[in-house]
Amino acid sequence: MQEGSAAGREIKLFILQIFDDQAHDEIYFKHKAFNFDYSYTMEEKVSPQAIHGYSQQYSRKILDRFFVGKQFITGQELLSLSEVEQINLFILQALFKAWKTEMANSRSVYFDYEAEPVKEAQQNLMNILSRHIQVDRKHLEPLLINAVSQTLNDVLNPYDFFTKLITGNNNELNLEDFKEELKYLKLNKAPLLRLSQILQEKKTLTISGNEAFAILDKILEELNFSPEDIEPLLEKLSLVEPVSLDRFYDGKNKGKATPSVSKPNTPAKETKTIAEDFQKINVIKESLTINQKFMFTKALFGGDFEKFSEAITELDKRNDFNEAMDYLSIHLGNWDQESEEFHEFMEMIEKRFS
How confident is the model at residue 293, as a pLDDT? Predict the structure, then answer.
């Protein structure tokens, strides 16, 4: 393996083999077919509770299976703990992040930790410790549950996953930290890898999360990229804890009429059911998921997140539905009023002012 490949200097010797395909990834993303699928509407969105619940059940069975006559798991054994490689990688990532945090917190004010001999000694220590990982069940369980949840979110809701990865650190992306994150990512990696390459080509070391997302949005349009198929993941998970796709979605098959809006000041109103009234939105901004924010940004606001955010803020200030429609009249002429995104957006407005 060449120096500077996906393994990187900070990835320890015992896990180097899992990053051998970085060069393959760099070529692979150029050949996949773009088909970003919003097959579930706002009424059928991914349920964090369902993901967490399944992650707990799956993790318990994995731990029961492994810790039979064993008190600890080693680093080498972590590589094959789950049949899903991505889960194992996320566990290792969390472990090394925790180790780095502990090392940083233990620094004394009396020594120069930036001195080259000290940095070299720390690196050597990390290499040695990486070959002597030892984790008991109690401390492994939360890492495993989180790794399963991360994996499911990556595949079920890649747009959300991308956004959190890009904007999660105070809405700022640091290139070196981002490249480190990608070393542990196997699923839906291609567009993020391209983003890293663009930033590196531009010699951009830090960038705001919103700016990074704007670049990623163009990448998703330009690349022939297709999100990972969920079925192979579900098949591997089901070897331990049976599961189907429906389990992870809220509101499936709870059909709801789509509002019809033909004119800004004379929107068609619909008869509300008790269940629909119960779903009234108090504040639009607080009710939106990340996925919804960027779906609407892309489909209705030309990819301009600032314009979208401004519109939502202004809508929340309106007193009633008619005022909201008056404000939206500046946009309606430019929107495809037959699109699914338009109807879902208008349904959200109706919920806010119903």
Answer: 77
